[in-house]
């Protein structure tokens, strides 16, 4: 359902909505134990946020990207 929401935001030109949905998808993937997918979503979110003036969310997303990379490094990925 969130993936559909992200697509709707993209079609509507709502970059912030699309970015926040990607962030939420990253959190869900992490919760489910799929750190690689979480990293992909957080990275996509950050790319979208870099075009917007969202310093707080950009910082939060960078933190999540670092967390995912660290977890994947610990797993030998």
Question: Can you describe this structure?
Answer:
There is one protein chain. By secondary structure, the protein is mainly alpha-helical. It has one domain (2-74). It has helices spanning 2-12, 15-32, 35-49, 55-74. Helix 1 runs antiparallel to helix 2, helix 2 packs antiparallel against helix 3 and helix 3 (35-49) runs antiparallel to helix 4. The radius of gyration is 12 Å and the shape is flat.
Main sheet overview: none
- Helices, by number, come to 4
Which parts are unreliable, with pLDDT below 50 for 5 consecutive residues or more?
A: none
Q: State the helical fraction.
A: over 70%
How many discrete domains? 1
Helix and strand content put the structural class at mainly alpha
User: What is the count of β-strands?
Assistant: 0
Give the integer mean of the pLDDT values: 93
Distance between the termini: 29 Å
Q: What is the helix/strand order?
A: HHHH
User: Strand fraction band?
Assistant: under 5%
The rounded Rg comes to 12 Å
Molecular shape: flat
